Every structure is written in C-alpha cells, then in structure tokens.
Amino acid sequence: MTELITIPGRWEFDYTYFAGEAASRFFGELKDSRRIMGVRCPSCKRVLVPARSFCDVCFQRTEEWVEVGPEGVVETFTILTAAFAGMPKPPVVIAYVTFDGADTALLNVLTGLDLSNISDAAHRLQARPRVRASFVDEPQGRITDFTFTLL
Ligand SMILES: [Zn+2]
C-alpha cells in the first residue's frame, strides 16, 4: 500500500473577486439599509439567504427580493480556539443562523456569549438559541457589518 504523506505549504496573497449581481445588492443592503435580504425562488418558494441569483435546488433564476430577520435561530456552530487570518481573536463563535422568514442559514460570527468556559458556551449554543443581527456603527458592505448576538 502506498504510504500517504502530507506536503507542507503556505498561501498568503491578496485578491479581489467579482461578487456578482446578487451578492453586490446583498452587501449594498447591509451597508445602506442595515437589512438582511434574501430572494424567493419562483419554483420551490424557498427564501434563500444570502441572496443569490439562482436556486440551488431548482436552478431557477431568482428575482423576488425579501427582507428577513433581523432575528433568527442558531442551526449549528463551531467555536474556534485557534487564530485564523482575517478572523477576530479566538475564541470565536461561528454560527449558521436561519433568519425569520428565511429557509436557508447564513454563516457569520456570533458575539456576546461568555466564552470563558468553552464547554458551557457550547451547551448553550446546542439549545439553538434565538439571535439578532447587530450592526456595526459604520457598515462597509461586508459580512463583517453585523454579528449575531444572543437575545
Ligand atoms: Zn427553488
């Protein structure tokens, strides 16, 4: 049997990517209106968040914009205890939240939870608590414009 090996590497580069029509409007709504926007699929009627141009199930083009939230429920989460580039200083909670009125979950940082005891924090999150999107003072049109905070 072939021995499986690992090959060390390192990536560090700046990049810019084209966000596209739906994501551009989604982030613009965060910045200009502090609203979380999704789109309704014309076929399955699910509200997809974040907004995207096509339904991932039906492959239908989406054009009906719907405001969701600002409250929702934690679906799942992880607690980062190691530092990652571009992320807040650990420990950090990353959660998937389904906003009220949405059918898909959005990933973002959850703040305001006491993380002095990671196990206790995890147990609290396993109860799928309700949260609210809390916006920064000066939104920039980025996902970092808001975090989830526990209600
Ligand atoms: Zn659909």
Characterization of the model:
With 151 residues, the protein is α+β, with helices and mostly antiparallel strands. The protein is globular, with a radius of gyration of 18 Å. It has one domain (20-150). It is built from two helices and eight strands; from the N terminus they run αββββββαββ. The protein has helices at residues 20-33, 118-126; strands at 36-40, 47-48, 64-68, 71-80, 92-99, 106-111, 130-135, 146-150. Strand 5 and strand 6 (106-111) form a beta hairpin. It has a five-stranded mixed barrel with strand order 4-5-6-8-7. Bound molecules: zinc ion. Zinc ion is lined by residues 41, 43-44, 46, 55, 57-58, 60. Zinc ion (ZN) is lined by residues 41, 43-44, 46, 55, 57-58, 60.
The total beta strand count reads 8
What is the string of helix and strand elements? Answer: HEEEEEEHEE
Give the fraction of residues assigned to helices: 10-25%
Strand content: 25-35%
User: What is the CA–CA distance across the termini?
Assistant: 54 Å
In the sheet with the most strands, the strands line up as 4-5-6-8-7
Bound small-molecule species: zinc ion
Integer count of domains: 1
Number of helices: 2
How is the biggest beta sheet arranged?
A: 5 strands, mixed, barrel
Contiguous uncertain segments of 5+ residues: none
Basic shape: globular
Radius of gyration: 18 Å
SSE-based structural type: alpha+beta
| Average predicted confidence as pLDDT | 96
